[in-house]
Amino acid sequence: MLADWYYRYEHRVGFFAMVAGFAFDWFTLWRIDLLAEHILIITYLSICIITTVYLSLVEERSKQGIWWRRFYTTGLFVLQFALGGLFGRFLLFYTISGSIAGSWPFLLVLFAVLVANELSRHHYQRYVMRMSAFALALLSYSILLLPVLLARMSDTIFLFSVFASLVVFTFLNRSIMRFFPSFRVQRNQLISVVLVLYTIVTLLYFGNLIPPIPLSLKAGDVYHNVTRSGSDYVSVTEDYSWVAGLVPGKSVHIIRGAKLYYYSSVFAPTRLTAQITHQWQKWNEEGGKWQTISTIRFPVVGGSDGGYRGYSEKSNVGAGHYRVNIMSERGALIGRTNFEVVVVPIVPTLTTIKR
Questions:
Q1: Contact present, 56 and 180 (Cβ < 8 Å)
Q2: Which pLDDT tens digit goes with each residue over 147-180?
Q3: 227 vs 7, 160, 220, 338, CA distance in Å?
């Protein structure tokens, strides 16, 4: 009775399961450099391999009437659950790490895989599909893991992550095919799919369309003044209403020739040191594009829950539309703040914030 009900409403159940699973991932998301987080991800990956071996065994010997073939459907559910847990956490980590404006192609790929995983389990009855999904999950984790372990971010580290995940995947795939020869006919198709996936991810990375994980923006905004007082940063801002905080692109009122400051707090894992950039840009009305007017680079040091704090300043700011891009050393977008500068004769009421 319960099974009949599930098959009848499978897509609706899958949708609500996806929403519930995503909410669970959000509220249980830990720091990217915590051992518990990596134990959970490795557990999900292990479940994927175990269930893949089981499903392959049942499919290989389907005509032999093995009694535990009755758990085949359960195996599909378990695999779907594990992959959903993986891609849900990856989507959250990568979304937190970068700006949607700069990384939407890669985030869209992860979201599409997550939705496809939750809405239908039938495609996992094909060996190529379940191993392709596992390969993408393994690659996504490798890109996340290596910078944390090596406390470095670079193109070399990324390429090594791709290579390492490909080696692990190749070993596992060959091991499975060695024990289940009937799947060898799908080898070329699987290799083609995996190579296409890995190539797409690599091209997205070198196009700065993958979030600069494991960096993430904890806070960032424009202020009238920022000074350091001991271990605190003191920021001076306008007394905005709470409604203004909900609307992107706020207005900043200054007198002619005044300075503006941009404060950011960027999280990095323990021991990791990286360079970030505050790129100030102004909208050029005549040219119809953003024009870079200032670029300030400084290091961030990992380990603090609240992120590594720093600020930049811009002198002689005129009226117009501005934005500040917070970017990694190679130019991947970590975050962005848009605002409009309005020149006024009298400075508005200001308030002080200590961080």
A1: yes
A2: 999 999 999 999 999 999 999 999 999 999 888 8
A3: 62, 41, 15, 22
Phi, psi of 97 (to 5 degrees): -70, -30
Classify domain 216-354 by CATH number: 2.60.40.10
Q: What's the DSSP call for residue 297? A: E
Query: Is the distance from CB of 130 to CB of 55 less than 8 angstroms?
Result: yes
CA-wise closest residue to 212 among 326, 87, 88 = 326
List, as one string, the DSSP characters of 9-65: THHHHHHHHHHHHHHHHHHT---TT-HHHHHHHHHHHHHHHHHHHHHHHHHHTGGGT
Residue pair 214/332 in contact (Cβ under 8 Å)? The answer is no
What is the domain partition of the chain in residue ranges?
Answer: 2-206, 216-354
- pTM of structure: 0.86
CA torsion sign for 87, 93, 98, 99 is positive
pLDDT tens profile 278-296 = 999 999 988 889 999 999 9
